[in-house]
Records
---
Amino acid sequence: MKTSQDQPFLLQVCNLHKRFGGVYAVKDITFDVPTGIIYGILGPNGSGKTTLFNLISGVTKPDAGQVFFQGNECTAYPAHSLAKLGIARTFQNLRLFTGMTVLENVLVGGHLITPTNLWTIGFVQHSHKKIEAELYDKALQWIEWVGIQEYRDLLANQLPYGAARRLEIARALMSNPKLLLLDEPAAGMNPNEAASLSDLIRSIRDQGVTVVIIEHNVRLMVSLCDTILAIDHGEFLAIGTPNEIVRHPLVIEAYIGTSNGLAK
């Protein structure tokens, strides 16, 4: 495997396998994600998309295969170690701290990568207070940036659904990721909310964060992504531009539609 200085890919996934019982959830999936793009992973419900994310993000250990980030192997690293490397993610089902405020939830993302330890807390109070003040200011900036400043002091369980999705993204961004994994962020959104979310995701890419997004919403993926990998039943179907993917016969068959229907 080449080092990060020798190759252009931020994320490389090589021959990943995962079985649950006798069923493959992910089977021999390989793909490369260049820096600075929005990369989509498309598939019907139950196609293995979330399992693939779980393998990449350290939630689940693969049975076989490797994951490389910036040219260095990080297969099955725990999530907190991946956060320190620069990988953050959101979840299909919201995982917010519902009894904490919006601001407190976002601060959690900063604490994942803060070099705070017993020494700074117990013996170097000034240093610890400075770190906390910097995190507080940064959290406020991300809250405003994703457009939920009006909810700053509300508990997470008091938010409208769309704002809760943006909160989860703000918390992920708080950890200074180089790679952001978004697991069906538009699930449950109406078309206007999904369009607004697409604008936000493009802005994240424009901030220098590479985005990998999984969705079964074909319309959103076609409008948003630079490259799309299509999978079904845990297996590779096709890879290409959005227009190529929606016209690919295997993708059409997986969705039981037509190329025109998929593209709309």
Note: The longest strand covers residues 9-20.
---
Amino acid sequence: MHMTTHSLSQYIDDGKVAVVTDSVAQVPATVAGELGISVVPFSVLVEDATFRDEVDITPTELYQRMRTEGILPRTSHPSLGEYLQVFRERLQAGAGSILYLPVSGKLSGAYDTALEAAPMIREEYPDREIGVFDTRTATIAQGFIAIEAAQASCRGAALGQVMDIAKDVRTRTGFVATLDTLEYLARGGRIGKLAYMLGNMIDVKPILNIGDDGLVAPIARVRGAGRSLEKMVAWVAERVAGKPGLRLAVMEGDAPDQAARLRDLALQELQPDEIFITSMTPVIGVHAGPGIIGLAYYHE
């Protein structure tokens, strides 16, 4: 699955709201193409080389290199120039306005950089509007917001209405994830050495999500991989019980067997209208390590 910003010829925007997001949102390329979502790639830095997420390197390639070569990649958000370029492209293709939906501003500088780009573009196109809305989430949970916003735009909704829909969808989407190992969080200095040693000694699996404040937070700790999958499904079940139109996404970072188990469990327990498996974005995987697995939801 390759995601990139699209060429002008792909868009004839006819005055509509152009929805833009970043590669952290994991919007499948086919869906982005159908709905006219522009995806701005984050970059993954491996030693001296820079790769554009999902353009020059896939999550699977990256996770396998982390396992086999022991590399410690870094990530960086799109530059001011990249935002200016994609915003200009969409306006030149006829968009009446733009709504950019970035990963949580607490996790990345993408939101702030886009806020800097917006008034610069407004000066060039004074008759157009640029909206930037902090999704305060990440992964396909962020992607669900972009998809619903783009569908509203396709129906002819104006910028204010599309922004309202994005705000509303944010209250109906979320995700939970568990790590294979605490090693990468420890190596990155994100947890203390003692907590890491204790965690790995007793096979403790931390379960994480992004809270309403847009920050990653642990919500539980369980022993053993099997129990961690059950705990994730139970956590989602609490949030989606009795809700219509349930869509689920299983996310994995080089953990296909676990992903298949989680998919089966989620199908059985939650009976969604739709479920699919997608790669966990490297922007999270780089810090969490290979073997990360997650479950995202969206309901109507």
Note: Residues 147 and 280 are 18 Å apart (CA to CA).
---
Amino acid sequence: MKLRFPVLILLSGIVVALVACGDKSSLREDHPIKPIREYERMIVGRLDADYIGNTACLEKCHAHDKIFKDFNESVHSSQVDAASGLPLVNCESCHGPGSIAVQNVREDQPCDYKSLLDIENLPAMAQSLICVKCHSAVSTPTLQFWNASTHNLNEVSCFDCHELHKGPQQKVSREETADLCFKCHQELEMEFNNFSHHPVPEGKLACSDCHNPHGTANDKMLLGVTAKATCTKCHMEYQGPFVYEHADVTEDCINCHKPHGSPNEPLLQVAQPFLCMQCHVAHTEHDHAFDSTTHKQAYFNRCTDCHSMIHGTDIPSFSGRGDFLAR
């Protein structure tokens, strides 16, 4: 009986699997992925170096006194183990063990920086892992979406936003948030310069009021489940539900508004009446609801001059039909 070609392939695969499973000890052996081991070494530092503490690191070096003083005033330096009295975070927590770096320090021989972690030249994700190795536990609510976040996947590291040697304030303040975000999001800075914009440049609103820079499960790293849920945290009068609703408004505010800024008041994607005319047929002089002698081409006015409750209302319109959203 002649076997078909696909059957031969299946049988050969079974034979190979049986041969591989013949030596059961091989299944229990450790087969490390070498690139990952090398990646771990990049974060851990020199394996032949020892941890010696801040005092031993800095006793012969005065170049970093100002940096160390600022770090001592920070929240990281204040993390102390109650049992041992030792700091939980010190210089070596980020820079790696320092015994080799200082063993030959003299007046004519500076610190051997090459034995420490080359943080500036590490890949962005490796830089973030230096922080995440501690913060994955203590900052779970904030960082639970970090690994899959837009920032992490686009090689933005913790050090791009946080300055650990700055002093007591290591978080980005509300006043600094916009300037920090605009370094990368320059197109949004241009939108905020439009005539109609949310008051971010004025400091009354911060990017983090709507977005979580560490990532969320929502689109655009929004704090709300949807754009409307985010917007109605402040604009609660448009939240609804209404008896008479505007269908587009119940879906997404961004159908009509540009959230950061627009040349059209109020933050409209397109000026009235042309925004409304994208979905609705405009009134004409032949419309039975208009007197052609007095209301000819009245649709060149703003639609909201008549349809004032455009987001929704519980009150019927003047004609008794609530779908006009007139009041």
Note: The beta strands are 196-197, 244-245, 261-262, 312-313.
---
Amino acid sequence: MNKRLQTAALTWLCLAAPFAFAELPHHSLIEQAQQEEAPRVRYALEHGAEVGLTADGKSYYLLWFPEGSDAQHPPPMITTLHGHEGCAFVDFYVWHQFLKPRGYGLLAIQWWLGTGEGIHDYLLPQEIYRVIDDVFRGLQIRPGAAMLHGFSRGAANIYAVAAMDRSLHKEYFSLFVANAGKANSDYPPTREIEQGRFGDQPLAGSQWVTYGGGQDPHPDRSGIVGMRDAGAWIQQYGGTVALAIEDPNGDHGGFHRNPRNCALALDVFDRLRRP
């Protein structure tokens, strides 16, 4: 892009931003998203995503319904947890093209708190589940009508979230998708599962899809080898791997970059979800 066109584009962005962001709640993490991911924020708002604050005020979430459904008549729901230093608005952008044709809704949780790398710089699994439960109770989501997806660090957290969903007998999720992130025993929420906090078989009855890419820079942690380990770990605690996606050409973010991968996982959800 030449300098004149670049200047014109930036001018348009600055002029359009107040209109696009007018209905957003006030929160420092939303302001950070506006500064760092402005095109994705605009995309979400233009396509009808609603933005709400978590009950504890720590963060926010995006809620979206396809045409023909709304909060009074919610569709099957996909819940997603972004990866390391991620953004819920980017997650909406990545998922939207796949969910719209299927008539699925989306709950994207901003679980990174904007700075830092430590466990408390992210919402803890129990805090994540509280957000899910608050939203789903409000929507009257029935057991088995939702799918939970986690990418990378988000995937490393969904094992504990899954254990909570089962142990609390909510069972909102008929499918869990662990995308490029295995359960690590050095991560405290994973250790709680292994130490029996949720019982001997905390994942009993749960169904899973795993994804690993052959070009992942960390093959033993989040690539094909790592996600084979994840599958064995899931089975050890009572879960079932309905589908293990191994994409030899896929990288760390290859689940969404290859539409076939995403379609395969959603096909499993189609088969397993309860009406």
Note: Strands lie at 50-53, 60-64, 77-81, 105-109, 146-151, 173-179, 207-213, 240-247.
